[in-house]
Amino acid sequence: MTELSPAATAAAAGTTGFKAPGTTPDKTPRGYTPGLAGVNFGVYLALLTPVLVSMAFKVQHITDSTEEATAQLGLIMGVGALFALIANPLAGRLSDRTTSRFGMRRPWILGGTLVGLGGFALIGVANSVWIVLIAWCLVQTAMNAVLAAANATLPDQVPVSGRGKVSGIVGLTTPLGILAGSFLVNFLSDDFARFVVPAAIATVLAVLFVLVLKDRRLEEKPAQRFTIGQFFGSFVFNPAKHPDFGWTWLTKFLVMFGYAGIATFLPFYLTEKFGLDEQTAISTILAANLASMVAMAISGPLGGVLSDKIGKRRPFVAIAGGIMVVGLVVLAFAPSVPVVLVAQAIIGLGAGSFMSVDLALATQVLPNPDDTAKDLGVLNIANALPQSIAPAIAPGIIALGAATPLGGYTVYYLFGALVALAGAVLVYRIKGVK
Asked: What is the pLDDT of residue 395?
């Protein structure tokens, strides 16, 4: 590719409306930060509302029994999460090589959102579990492509000195999306609206972001071909060579496994154990999510600040994991709905601190300073993979637990507590960090 002078680069960028590759503005473009936050909020609203509430009831409406619904929900969520795990980094890599005249990221953001909207509509009208499964995999692929492409604009649009602030604002969109989805579903009475309305909001926000984004434009594809082996090879590390990083990965995986299975099956837990009707269960989930998010908002910054001040990470990770274990045990034996809310608050208290301190710990054990993004991608697998495995094996554990005096869901949440406890203990196998 011919290299342009600074003056020519500025002229080209000014005449085309696109940022030239390899350049970063002196200040964040107007409208970029709210646009990026908006598209992230929309994606999380569309994706997490089914995970937390609407998918469980959708599957219940098209199956013949609670046992069948539980098994099919685990299948749908487990397989869908695998598609998400692959789609996010793959779409990010492909957007880096996109030479569209509309820019590198905008086609993926707009196209992914429109495909996702179609997938959500298909789920809304589906009367077969297999159609729901296929459509959910399509949705996970499309919406994760949107996330990958949208967030890849950050280094293109924001100076280094401002990226922390923008990332912090974007980070708030996950809990806001959870709360907004839980609130919105209270006013939507049918399956079609519960899936399409959040997706439509996400589409509008994505369109607004595409309109304000002055996207990079790649004139020529990179000379090196992008292969499947190259893609999967970039997410491999040697735990024998980097044991601290390996133990960090395992700790995150185990603790997040205990955390990942809570939300998906909470609707069934509430309706089966406490006899709540569908609308009351939805309202209870809203209250539970609110309690959890408030606790996370308190413990996340507090845990990070205290670990910085004291200069130790491992005790905070272990304590945070232990708090989550307590919350899971309380949830498992909850005698009433108010105790469920208390349990969710306890779990949120531990999760907020764990996520903030665990990330700080992870940055101190990365194998290669030159491959930070790749290594953080490996850690993201430990965060995302439990979201596939936990729902997939949950129906079997619940079915086995149903044959015991404790009951299926009690056994399931106790199993999650034991796995999370193992993660909290194993953090002390990390030797390079206090």
From this structure: 83
Q: CA 325 → CA 187, 259, 397, 419, distances in Å? A: 33, 9, 18, 9
What topology does CATH give the domain 237-434? Growth Hormone; Chain: A; (1.20.1250)
Residue tagged 């999650």 (tokens): 416
Do the beta carbons of residue 254 and residue 426 sit within 8 Å? Answer: yes
Categorise residue 30: left if φ over 0, alpha if ψ from -120 to 50, beta otherwise: beta
Residue bearing tokens 């009475």: 189
The whole-number pLDDT of residue 428 equals 85
HSE value, Cβ hemisphere, 13 Å, CA-based, for 107? 16
How many Å apart are CA 383 and CA 189, to the nearest integer? 33
Percent of residues, the chain, with pLDDT higher than 90 = 21
Residue 346's identity, in one-letter code, is: I
Q: What is the pLDDT of residues 252-275, one digit of tens each?
A: 888 888 887 777 788 888 888 888
SS3 of residue 216 by DSSP: strand
Burial 247-264 (b: 16+ CB within 10 A, else e): bbbbbbbbbbbbbbbbbb
- Cβ burial of 50 (10 Å; 0-12, 13-18, 19+) is buried
Which residues, listed in sequence order, are joined to residue 391 by a DSSP beta bridge?
Answer: none
- Overall average pLDDT of the 85-106 stretch: 79
* Common-topology check for domains 31-219+226-234 and 237-434: yes
Domain positions in the chain: 31-219+226-234, 237-434
Residue range 31-219+226-234, CATH number: 1.20.1250.20
Span 400-424, average pLDDT: 88
The torsion angles phi and psi of 222, rounded to 5 degrees, stand at -55, 145
What is the average pLDDT score of the chain?
81
| Least confident segment among 25-39, 131-145, 215-229 | 215-229
Show Cβ contacts of residue 408 under 8 Å, excluding neighbours closer than 6 positions: 397, 398, 399, 400, 401, 402
Instruction: Annotate 270-291 with b (16+ C-beta within 10 A) or e (fewer).
Output: bbbbeebebeebbebbbebbbb
pTM given for the model: 0.75
Angle between helix 173-185 and helix 163-171 axes, rounded to 10 deg: 20
Q: CB count, 10 Å around CB of 315?
A: 15
Residue range 364-405, pLDDT digits in tens: 776 766 555 556 667 777 777 787 788 788 888 888 888 888
